[in-house]
Amino acid sequence: MNAAVVTVGDELLVGDTENTNATWLCDRLDVRGVRVRRVTVVPDEVSEIARVVNEYRAEYDAVIVTGGLGPTHDDVTMEGVAAAFGRGLVENEAAAAWLAERGYSGDDLAAETTHLPADCRPLPNEAGVAPGAVVESVYVLPGVPAEMKAMFELVEDEFAGTLTHVLTVDVDEPESELLDRIASLRERFDVRVGSYPGEVVTVKITAESEAEAERAAAWVRERADAVEDESA
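The structure corresponding to this sequence follows.
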């Protein structure tokens, strides 16, 4: 399963708010074997949200959109997602009923609170007020981290892919000197390889087969100045 994560908010683009939602979602999806192919930040603009969601829903199995839910002037995510599907926003009776059960009447909420894309599946906000929605393969979640996490956990089982095995080998050599060996590693084994320099170079090996990951890691240790893990 391939997915894209779209985070909405001008505050993210100017650096006022750290994009922790994207990091958290990528981690949870990775654990479930879902490959995140894109992480994109878009402004609070209907046209930009619609354009990106429309592109990604055609390319990937699922799209998760976070941020911009609610009744204020810059909460335009639902409108943007609806536009991506050529739909309008309509009063969602299920969302209104759920909020009523929690003690919210129509007088307590702005009218737009329960306006969701037509023919969507509403998602209750267990940690807040503004509901989310599922429109075909697009999941729309709040931007407040606690609300986003609680809502994602309601649909988490709908995300599944091929679980992978990850091994790392720390190498005490310049990254530039490892290029040929990394190229050979990719050719010899069915693995994905990343290299991350710091005090040492960490070679990250990802494979669907645990045995293949182990063989690839052993190959690196034999052909590079590998640093022994003193904690082992």
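The chain has a mean pLDDT of 93.
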